[in-house]
Amino acid sequence: MARQFFVGGNFKMNGTIKSIQDIIHNLNDAKLDPKTEVVIAPPALYLLVAREHLRAGIEVAAQNVFNKPNGAFTGEISAEQLKDSGIGWTLTGHSERRVILNETDNVSALLPRRVKRRERKEETEMDIRDEGAMRQKKNATLTEVHRYSSSQARQKRRLMVQRQDDKTIEVVTTQLKAVAEQTKDWSKIVVAYEPVWAIGTGQTASKEQAQEVHAEIRKWLSSNISEETAEKTRIIYGGSVSEKNCKELASQADIDGFLVGGASLKPAFVDIINAKA
């Protein structure tokens, strides 16, 4: 069975009530590929605004989630709270949290991913984060980055060295191993690969480079989890996706969708959603 194409929009720390309502209005009125699963992740303050105004068929994700149900954890949001609010997805392990907030592979892997939809009367299930995917339904994100305390400019140079020294697969599979150690049900995870070495460096991952890493991730899943998991798990790409490069990226065998950053704030996000149409 073919994997359903998945497009997530990560708004990051951007937007106001009005601008997010405008984005939602554009999505609601747009003709979107019905075969593509669409999820948007606004800042936490606007999750309920998005859920209230989005049309049926488009889901909402948190940008982060904590692995405890409640308690003295200032600033955190639990899977139970997301479920109670009708939010069925979350991002975990994003590169910006790894780099700026020093989240380690183990921390990312312990965060819950997918919240089963309340209206379906399913239990909340804690999943893990991968940097590129969302879990309650979880999006786990894999990035070519470890924990660094140096400046971001130095971090990017070091990440480029990782790529140039062919350490990409080693770094990504190390992150994936941390997730695998905490994950029982891979059906609730979407894995996102993000080539951090390309951000702000003037270098862009080609479709061949992206496909190479995605294929290696799927190979790792097959060897370390199961062939069935490898075949069914969606692996999406998150490196400067735009309306200009989305179709050629989507044509690759192991690229099952996108995690879109800045472009998700623009009308062109619709073109990215329809990349397979």
Give the strand content: 15-25%
Q: Categorize the overall geometry.
A: globular
Q: Count every beta strand, where a strand is a DSSP E run of 2 or more residues.
A: 9
| Low-confidence blocks of residues | 110-136, 143-165
Alpha carbon gyration radius: 17 Å
Oligomer state of the chains in this structure = single chain
User: How would you sum up the major sheet?
Assistant: 9 strands, mixed
The total of helices stands at 11
Structural class: alpha/beta
Residue-averaged pLDDT: 80
Order of helices and strands: EHEHEHEHHEEHHEHHEHEH
Approximately how much helix is present in the residues?
Answer: 25-40%
Distance between the termini: 18 Å
How would you concisely characterize the structure shown here?
The chain has 277 residues and is α/β, with parallel strands linked by helices. It has 11 helices and 9 strands. The protein is globular.
Task: Provide structural commentary.
α7 packs across α8. Strands 1, 2, 3, 4, 5, 6, 7, 8 and 9 form a nine-stranded mixed sheet that branches. It is built from eleven helices and nine strands. β2 (36-41), α2 (47-53) and β3 form a beta-alpha-beta unit. It starts with a strand and ends with a helix. It has helices at residues 17-29, 47-53, 79-84, 95-100, 105-110, 152-164, 168-180, 207-224, 227-232, 246-250, 269-273, and strands at residues 5-10, 36-41, 58-62, 89-91, 131-135, 138-143, 189-194, 234-237, 257-260. Mean pLDDT is 80; it is low at 110-136 and 143-165. It has 277 residues and is of the alpha/beta class. Helices cover 35% and strands 16% of the residues.
